[in-house]
UniProtKB/TrEMBL annotation:
Pfam families the record matches: Polyketide_cyc2 (PF10604)
Protein name according to UniProt: SRPBCC family protein
Gene3D superfamilies noted in UniProt: 3.30.530.20
InterPro entries cross-referenced by the UniProt entry: Polyketide_cyclase/dehydratase, START-like_dom_sf
């Protein structure tokens, strides 16, 4: 597990990697289609583009609805902050100048396939986790640690699902 920091203000990160037996262009078709992501994630329930957009470009926005057993249900607006086909797509959750989180997929052609990484940074803007920390400030490090482990586990599952889908064709 690669994550740094134990406090929310440290903007902890986690990154997961997978090698996929498919070219970057094929993997890009999947990771850049945010409408497919609810099928890749157990937490993300639905996604839809805003402003008449239908694919990623810097500045495009989409709404995601998520559900978590302990945190409930919530909706966020994400802003695409990087988009370079077929290499990288990234988005900032809520306020792009002070995001609740930043998510990024990187693709690198390697050994006739693709090395895919999914990376995320928590904070610095407030998120649902902030409310749990507000309620139990003495447990902040444990709360952050547990959530980062959840992200790592869920990202590993997501990459496995992307791998299967990309390699099917």
């Amino acid at each position: 597990m690669e994550w740094t920091g134990a406090r929310y203000a440290d903007k902890p990160t986690v990154e997961v990697r997978a090698w996929i037996d498919a070219p970057p262009e094929r993997v890009w078709e999947i990771v850049s289609d945010v409408s497919l992501m609810p099928g890749m994630s157990d937490e993300l329930q639905s996604v839809h583009w805003l402003d008449g957009e239908s694919r990623p470009a810097v500045g495009a926005r989409f709404v995601g609805r998520s559900r978590h057993e302990a945190l409930g249900e919530w909706e966020t607006t994400s802003h695409v902050i990087e988009c370079e086909s077929p290499r990288v797509i990234a988005w900032a959750v809520d306020d792009p100048s002070r995001p609740a989180a930043v998510w990024r997929f990187r693709l690198e052609g390697k050994d006739d396939g693709t090395e895919l990484s999914e990376w995320m940074q928590l904070g610095p803007g407030r998120s649902g986790l902030s409310f749990a920390i507000d309620e139990m400030p003495d447990k902040e490090q444990k709360i952050v640690f547990v959530r980062m482990r959840e992200f790592e586990r869920n990202m590993t599952i997501t990459l496995g699902r992307i791998k299967r889908l990309a390699e099917e064709r």
